[in-house]
Amino acid sequence: MDHDTFAEQLTTLQSRLEGALPPVNSPSDLQNDLATALRLLQAASAEMRRQDEALALACQAAQTEHQRYHDLLQERQQVEEILRQEHHLLELERKHLRSVLDIIPAALWVVDRQGQVLAQSTLSKTIWAGEPLPDDHLSEYKGWWADSGHPLAPEDWSRIRALTKGETAINEEINIEAFDGTRKTILSSAAPIKDEQEQIVGAVVLNMDITTRKQAEEALRLSDVRNRALLDAIPDMMFRLSREGVYLDYKPAKAADLFVPASEFLGKTMDKVLPPDLAQQMRQAVDRALQNGETQNCEYRLPINGKMREREARFIASGEDEVLVIRHYIDLIGERFLPIV
Q: In terms of Cα–Cα distance, which of 262, 210, 264, 243 is closest to 324?
């Protein structure tokens, strides 16, 4: 590049710079302008720092809120899991309770404080032949105390006493008339349900139908009466002996016609009461009667009231370990077998 060209370019650059830069009036003006610019820069810097701090605080608050939300979310998830598990356990308990209510051989009700049924067993409708009535219809229940025959008042029922007085009733025997008119005998029980403050909040009621059992007991009683009448009509003496030969009981024919008084043979074995030969003979008869179930006959002689008398005893198995002995009287002077009344 020659000298003229360089001078020309330098002149062009100078012109551009002079047009771009502001005119400088004096050094003091330049100093003032620089001071103003510096203050503006400092103010702008301070504003930026303030904004940065505010932004930092906002970011920190956002992070704190995010963490709190995250913690709340985790806590809620934990609570929901606990509730889910409790609900699952509650459903299992309900299923278990339902299973128990389905198989329990009695009528069972769980009622609230107002007597409303919360749960009931499958047989709860069977005993009374219908649904349980609310407490304001208790007069429609018909029942009589089994021991006295007196009718039950509404407040006498065990459920009402449990709810109003907190009483517990166990196996109260009551004759009832079901809603279909059927007569039955039940065992009625009830117990109050209390909360943590010992306030009554409900009751559990149990009714068990014992009609069949009572009928069987009555039939057995009548059978015992008939059997006793038959035994009393038989003039012969009878003994009950165990497998070991122990005198368990007896029915006398004549109070004075005993080898020894009853107090000396009841509860004792034959070998402690009878002569040895006779005791052995009778013990063998007991064994044979229990072994083959056939009636065994045994004739023997004993001194009674100062006279030798001949007797015949029949051994009949009356159970697995018990024998009934029927003793006949024999008079050898006349005919061989002659009952003495």
A: 243
